[in-house]
Amino acid sequence: MCSLSFFFLFISSTLIFILGIYYLVFDYSVFIEWEVFSLNSSMVIMTFIFDWMSLIFMSFVMYISSLVIYYSEDYMSGEKNINRFIMIVLMFILSMAFLIISPNLISILLGWDGLGLVSYCLVIYYQNVSSYNAGMLTALSNRIGDVSILISIAWMLNFGSWNYICYCNFISDSFEMSIITMLIILASMTKSAQIPFSSWLPAAMAAPTPVSALVHSSTLVTAVIYLLIRFSSMLCIYNLGWFLLLIGCMTMFMAGLGANFEFDLKKIIALSTLSQLGLMMSILSMGYLKLAFFHLLSHALFKALLFMCAGSMIHNLKDSQDIRFMGSVVNFMPLTSICFNVSSLSLCGMPFLAGFYSSDLILEMVCLSWINLLIYFLFFISTGLTASYSFRLIYYSMSSDNNFYSNFCFNDGMYFISFSMLSLLFIAVLGGSFLSWLIFPIPYMIVLPYYLKFLTILVVILGSYLGYCISSINFSFDLFSLSMFSFVSFSGSMWFMPYISTNLISYFPLSFGYYSLKSFDYGWGEFFGGQGLYSLFIYLMNYIQDFYDSNFKVYLLIFIFWMFILIMLFFI
């Protein structure tokens, strides 16, 4: 099943990528419509759009999915129901394909809800308490976005069709379209885990690592960026870009800061995904659509590789995810270490790797744009924090002694995992330049002063040094260390957002339910309700029973009473 799915997806991705390049070179777009049924002048039409953007994105999704499925052959080797796992992953890919090629809100809802439902099934795959909690947080957070899509479908009834792409450029003063745009932005914020819906993304790491490699690199969370690219003209018309810019920058800064104080390997990579999502969202809101799409594709390549390397290390460390147990991994797993370091450096934006071509271009365009000082500093500080947590991760995993069991034994001997990592390694190194030549046939000429031109690489170097400094912090019991510890607690817990999303929301309804149960159901409700009526009926039944038990006595008393009255009347 794994090998068959791998070959099918790999061949499909190759063919679709070639077709996407052909459409890009000749600037083609194909629109396919199929009318399912018509109801009161509202036609339910299945619509598909095939242009260079949808085809190249779908080819990337299928390529990464094929390698993830091949990777699962080793990683999930102890799983009895491996075919069920592969089927769920294939359903996930099908939902993603629906979302990519649909310019129609009805078919988008099919893909959108399919992604939400299947991701819930994958998060709770291991079926323990933490998985169930994470799955419930993921499902309920994403449900807000699902409801927003449903309401926007209802609002689009005003236009007689759900093909939003037909209306985006023509209805600039429509109140309905402004409502729909705001609902789409809300849905995008939930699905891409922007502030204040960020807590579900690290919680979703309860899923198996191959799923994390797929979900958090190229599918679930990045699909939202693609959807907003389709709705980008509405952001400009209704001037909502400033809101998304602020939200994206705050998310990028919060995730980068939190990852520097996290010790769970998969959560660090999840927070780096969140940081990159904030970067994509903010650059998209500034109007650079191709640049956001370019970074989406390059990010998918190195982030999938990073998750695969993390999965290989976790698998060899007997499912231990704490980076403090790692160390000297490079001595035992050289291939994994090479791939891990290359993908981490690509994430930082080291020159001539995939991430450099997009992130460096983004930061230079930020220097060239009309933005305020706060946004400018948030962009560059977040880039420094990205380099910081990447080098901190390399420091903990590659240097010093190994802190695992004394009789450990691990190596790079697993064929399927190694093949998948190597297949992504070459793309993660060469893919950025190749994509930049394809998507930008005329190169950007950005003229900046030399101190701004070198600011990106300077920020990366300073951030790397900061990561080393954070790794060597030792806390004591003086006042400075205690205040520093409070800052670390606040930053490392994502600004207490998981607490706000779970305990704070559930505490007041649950406490209200407890006190109402105590006061009404167990208090006055018992007195005037079931127990009170029960006691009253028991009392009345006993009284009536006593009456029937002494029936003859009562009859004689009544007879004597009447005889006494008759005698009194007779004598009177």
Automatic annotation (TrEMBL):
Q: How does it sit in the membrane?
A: Multi-pass membrane protein
This protein's UniProt keywords: Electron transport, Membrane, Mitochondrion, Mitochondrion inner membrane, NAD, Respiratory chain, Translocase, Transmembrane, Transmembrane helix, Transport, Ubiquinone
Regions that span the bilayer:
7-25, 45-70, 82-101, 107-126, 171-190, 211-229, 241-261, 268-288, 300-317, 329-353, 373-395, 415-439, 451-470, 522-542, 554-571
Task: Indicate the segments forming the NADH:quinone oxidoreductase/Mrp antiporter transmembrane domain, all copies.
Answer: 102-385
Domain NADH dehydrogenase subunit 5 C-terminal stretches: 389-570
Query: Which GO terms fall under molecular function for this chain's record?
Result: NADH dehydrogenase (ubiquinone) activity; NADH dehydrogenase activity
What is the annotated localization of this protein?
A: Mitochondrion inner membrane
Matching entries from InterPro entries are given as: NADH_DH_su5_C, ND/Mrp_TM, NU5C-like, Proton_antipo_N
Domain NADH-Ubiquinone oxidoreductase (complex I) chain 5 N-terminal residues, every copy:
40-85
Catalytic reactions of this protein: a ubiquinone + NADH + 5 H(+)(in) = a ubiquinol + NAD(+) + 4 H(+)(out)
Q: What is the top-level taxon of the source organism?
A: Eukaryota
Q: What's the EC number here? A: 7.1.1.2
Q: Name one Pfam family in it.
A: Proton_antipo_N
Q: What is its main location?
A: mitochondrion
Checking PANTHER family in the record gives: NADH-UBIQUINONE OXIDOREDUCTASE CHAIN 5 (PTHR42829:SF2)
> Of which family is this protein a member?
Belongs to the complex I subunit 5 family.
Record protein name field: NADH-ubiquinone oxidoreductase chain 5
